[in-house]
TrEMBL record:
Name of this chain's protein: DUF4124 domain-containing protein
UniProt keyword list: Coiled coil
Coiled coil: 60-87
Length: 218
């Protein structure tokens, strides 16, 4: 009984020590080890050891800076965007194969989209021409008034500024529609090439080059 009583505190102490840790980290060129972790070392890279057995129980990387956290978040977001784009591409290709039984059917869809964009371009061209003609007429009228020694009215000057602003806006629209049309041409070519690849269809043969003219007899 006496031996059991004396051994109990020692067992309890050993049990408590089994969870105690030893921390080791670097401060510049110095290696620091302690059974307590000071606040200034919380964000440092460190190793943790079991104080009783001496075995390493964990290795903690240093905390990221705000800039590093932002970079990591950006990289993670980009990975998600890339994965979503790849998944969308895969589902689009599957839908392409299931929906379009022939290349002509796919071309008809692109033809409808192309017609819409071409109509937008033609409308913008008409608006630009009309606004340019009206602006030129207003500028000519204002110039004639000045040559005649008359003052250009505030109303007329305001109309000229407004017409000029509208013309610039239409020119931007026209440029945007034309850029959209060029992008569609690239999209159409890439989609048709991918469709042929998925279907195992050989691309159309390029037209043969015209034969060279026969040399003239001297």
């Amino acid at each position: 009984m006496l031996l059991a009583t004396l051994a109990a505190p020692a067992l309890a102490q050993n049990k408590g020590d089994s969870g105690k840790k030893l921390y080791c980290w670097d401060e510049g060129s110095r290696r620091i080890c302690s059974d307590t972790l000071p606040p200034e070392a919380v964000n440092s890279a460190r190793q943790e050891f079991n104080a009783r057995s001496g075995t390493r129980s964990a290795e903690i990387q240093r905390a990221l800076t705000a800039e590093e956290r932002a970079d990591a978040a950006l990289a993670e977001a980009q990975q998600k965007i890339d994965a979503a784009a790849a998944d969308t591409r895969r589902r689009t290709e599957q839908a392409m194969l299931a929906t379009y039984g022939s290349e002509d059917a796919l071309r008809r869809v692109f033809a409808e989209r192309t017609a819409i964009v071409d109509n937008n371009i033609n409308t913008a061209l008409y608006n630009v021409a009309s606004l340019r003609e009206a602006l030129a007429a207003q500028l000519l009228s204002a110039g004639n008034r000045e040559l005649a020694g008359q003052k250009v009215s505030d109303k007329q000057a305001g109309e000229i500024r407004q017409r000029h602003t509208e013309l610039l806006a239409q020119l931007r629209l026209q440029a945007a529609f034309e850029q959209q049309r060029k992008a569609m041409e690239v999209e159409i070519a890439e989609s048709l090439a991918r469709y042929r690849e998925l279907k195992g269809i050989a691309p159309p043969a390029a037209p043969d080059a015209a034969p060279a003219p026969a040399p003239t007899q001297g």
